[in-house]
Design brief:
Helix content: 40-55%
Largest sheet: 5 strands, parallel
Shape: globular
Radius of gyration: 26 Å
Length: about 500
């Protein structure tokens, strides 16, 4: 039956386990038993299936047997420490050459640029700004308030590949790959297995409804509160007792999606990023693939690159960070939009992530705190200008803006057209075009005349309204205002850190 979940926790003696069976959001059975004994197992199957049509007894039995096998596996040293280990010990076990290269890279003023170059050497074409942002999201796992991001883009735009290649530069103990999650999965992770971890999820479900919102509820809680807690009923002897299950964070997080509109409670906790869907980027990808198949791609020593970054990440310490100019930033921020409450902490976390990554180049104050520099704000502002312009300025995404320009070339103001006609000639999928039309409709530059119904596409028209276009994000305080003495790199947007 769809929605039936069976989850277990290793119990005390004699191989006993506490098994919880849920149907949808309802816990239908929870008891402690020995799953290796057929008599106990069959009685539990009876309790689950009797009186409930549609539950396959054989399927339930099979799941319980598999659960018993998993719980019976011996607790090895690796599972005891959740497969993570001590970064310092793992670093000591690496070659002197890798450690020396990592130290030199951490002391390099062009540290982030080198990191982006290394991701390019692993096979990623273009997307340098997006790569740098993902790298800093991963590094932010060491903060007490890490970053979370969702990478949006059309199908086949390279979202998953870019995320996979960038996260390969983080050591295994730092990353948890979770391509699919059930509503209760995070609660039942081994203790301390999530704390300061970079959680890399897969493609977000295309269905946005109450069930998928429930599936991500635990994720929202740990992103907001830094920990999870849940009260569950457990059978102890002949009586039921309520136990508290806790899972400590915090976590850094990233996932990808083709959706234009994301469940608001999830989007509120994440920086929304976009891939480049332009033909020029497609050309870069194809040329890179062609060079690889032709034997002419200068990718360098991939293993050497990965080991250098693994060593560098293990060298990073969780120093406390102070941002001397944070009060000035707070004064310069506008307060006319409630979204500022989300934007300001994200900006501060990005500044702190940059400071943490560059800790071998930063000064300490008298209280042994890393001091964030002007470079850290300049980099954070550069990387967040696009996401913040949409969040604070109400502007549309770059892909939607470019689509609006193409629509203007094809359709006059007040001229009617269908979604199918709008998608004609577009390299992106029809789903992406529908999402862009929704963005433009919200911005007021197109108007929906008739909604989609059955096989009949929606009907639209262009309006005379103009898009609010800004190359920069004026809502973020300007560098000259934050640092009137000009203590930052000679680049007005921060490209020097990445390009």
């Amino acid at each position: 039956m769809d929605g039936l979940r069976i989850e277990g926790l290793r119990g005390g003696r004699n191989g006993s386990a506490t098994v919880t069976v849920s149907l949808g959001r309802e816990v239908i059975e929870c008891r402690t038993l020995n799953l290796t004994k057929p008599k106990d197992r069959d009685a539990f199957v009876d309790a689950i299936c009797d009186g409930r049509e549609g539950i396959d007894r054989d399927e339930v039995t099979k799941k319980l047997i598999c659960l018993a096998a998993d719980l019976a596996k011996p607790a090895t040293k690796k599972s005891a420490d959740n497969g993570r280990g001590d970064p310092e010990q793992l670093l000591a076990g690496m070659s002197k050459f890798s450690r020396a290269e990592a130290r030199a890279m951490l002391e390099d003023r062009n540290l982030l640029k080198r990191s982006v170059d290394d991701v390019a050497a692993l096979g990623v074409a273009g997307e340098r700004q997006l790569t740098a942002t993902i790298y800093l999201v991963g590094t932010s796992r060491l903060l007490d308030s890490p970053l979370a991001a969702i990478v949006k883009g059309p199908t086949a735009s390279g979202k998953s590949y870019l995320i996979r290649k960038t996260t390969s530069l983080f050591p295994a103990e730092a990353v948890l790959m979770a391509t699919q999650q059930t509503p209760q999965s995070l609660f039942y992770m081994p203790p301390d297995s999530l704390s300061h971890r970079f959680i890399v999820a897969g493609e977000r479900s295309r269905v946005e409804n109450d069930d998928t919102a429930e599936a991500t509820r635990a994720l929202r809680e740990i992103l907001s509160e830094g920990r999870l807690s849940q009260l569950i009923p457990l059978k102890e002897g002949n009586r039921m007792e309520t136990k508290l299950i806790q899972q400590d964070g915090p976590i850094a997080f990233i996932e990808s999606t083709t959706l234009t509109n994301i469940f608001e409670e999830d989007a509120n906790r994440c920086v929304l990023l976009h891939t480049d869907e332009q033909p020029k980027q497609t050309q870069r990808i194809v040329q890179r693939l062609a060079a690889g198949y032709g034997g002419g791609a200068a990718t360098g020593d991939e293993q050497r690159i990965v080991e250098r970054h693994h060593a560098a990440q293990r060298m990073l310490k969780q120093w406390p960070i102070v941002i001397p100019y944070a009060p000035r930033l707070g004064e310069l921020f506008g307060f006319d939009r409630v979204e500022v409450r989300r934007a300001f902490p994200q900006l501060i976390s990005m500044v702190r992530a940059s400071t943490l990554l560059h800790q071998y180049q930063r000064q300490f104050d008298s209280e042994a705190r890393l001091i964030a520099s002007a470079d850290d704000y300049q980099l954070a502002r550069y990387l967040l200008a696009g996401p913040m312009s949409r969040l604070l300025g109400g502007r549309i995404s770059e892909p939607a803006r470019r689509f609006a320009d193409r629509l203007a070339d094809r359709f006059a103001v007040d001229e009617k057209f269908t979604s199918r006609e709008a998608a004609k000639g577009e390299s992106a999928t029809r789903r992406a075009v529908t999402g862009w039309l929704a963005e433009l409709c919200e911005a007021g530059t197109v108007e929906q005349l008739e909604p989609h119904k059955g096989s009949r596409p929606a009907t639209w028209k262009r309006t005379a309204a103009e898009l609010d276009i800004a190359d920069d994000c004026p809502e973020l305080p300007a560098l000259d205002d934050v640092f009137p003495d000009g203590h930052f790199r000679h680049s007005d947007k921060g490209e020097a850190h990445v390009a």
